[in-house]
Amino acid sequence: MELDTKLIHGGPLIDQHTGSSSVPIYQASTFHQAQFSESQEFIYTRFGNPTRKALEETVSCLEFAKYGYAFASGMAAISAVLLNFSQGDHVILCKDIYGGAYQLVTEMFPRYGIEYTFVDETDLYAWKKAIKQNTKGIYIETPSNPLLTVTDIRGVVNLAKKYNLLTIIDNTFMTPIFQNPIKLGVDIVIHSATKFINGHSDVTAGLVVTNNQEIAETLFKTQKMLGNMLPPYDCWLILRGIKTMKIRMEKEVENAAFIAGELQKHSKVKAVYYPGLEYHNGREIHFSQAGSGGAVLTFDLGSYENVKDFFAHVSIPIVAVSLGGVESILSYPFTMSHAVIPEKERLELGVTDGLVRLSCGIEDKNDLLNDLFKALDHVKTADVLQKKIL
Ligand SMILES: Cc1ncc(COP(=O)(O)O)c(C=O)c1O
Q1: Structural contact between residues 274 and 297, judged by C-beta atoms closer than 8 angstroms
Q2: CA gap 36, 33 in Å, rounded
Q3: What CDD domains is this protein classified in (predicted)?
Q4: Mean of the pLDDT values across residues 210-223?
Q5: Overall fold of domain 3-242
Q6: Do domains 3-242 and 247-376 have the same CATH topology?
Q7: Would residue 195 show up in a list of annotated catalytic residues for this protein?
Q8: Which residue has the higher pLDDT, 347 or 227?
């Protein structure tokens, strides 16, 4: 089955009992047991629910995985995976990482006696150098948030296999439309489905898929114990969003590629970070493992003051935490997605006070560009001495 077909038929499309053209919202906490002393497929919604199952099957199909689990948010999914490491384990993670994952690792791992090391994700040797005797897992995000750095998935997987390490990837930015890490040998794929998979900025959700039965059993048990599963109505909304994910994303990517190219030429923009740009670091690796540059780009306006002037004059994108909606979303990583990272480390990472992240929606690309350019007219300084193209 090709991707376009999988999006519609990858999971159950119709209700097996009534034939309804959309899987119903099984809004029930529990299920009548015809034989009270015998088990049956659905017992209690925390353990399993038909609407959630339909979503889990659909996403597993899209990601070439056998098993899938739907969680209440991307962070619920990330924590369900990461908190399954044990006392004394060591985990290696990319340094350009979503702020919430950073906070989970730096604040909760020490309480459970789990060691961690952040590495420069673009340097395969850095991953290798960080491996210790007690290393158990590798966690990557590519392209990363917010600087769109690229990790060589195949390279990291090869390393992990050699040292018998579990590989985990946050595939939120690329989605199964453009990047299929399971096919590249990754063990666990995580999504914040709040973003492109749902696509309408009206649900928070997380997904985890794997091909490994043992990992799947652990995830199922974790979800059951922590009770952090996605409610039926939200599962239904995501199932609905998935059907149009490809056509939405194609337009969003087209817009992002166009905007990145134009912003790169603008005198008030110091740098543009977008894997689709010719000079982006890791571009070649990115396109060897992904099908597009994605719909998110980050650009540098040089200072907080410039960002303030810019945000005050944009009218098409909303200014908000999040990405992946049909509407364009501008955000300010310095005080939004990455605020939890201590300032010194944030600056070392390159998450400076001039950075703006844009998630392109499906609006007309010229309307979007004109709106951004109009706002840039209000940015006072044009002190770009040396344009940094990455
Ligand atoms: C790359 C990435 N992973 C995970 C998350 C967390 O997802 P959620 O907000 O659904 O918990 C986010 C949220 O912005 C994200 O950008």
Answers
A1: yes
A2: 5
A3: CGS_like (cd00614)
A4: 98
A5: Aspartate Aminotransferase; domain 2 (3.40.640)
A6: no
A7: yes
A8: 227
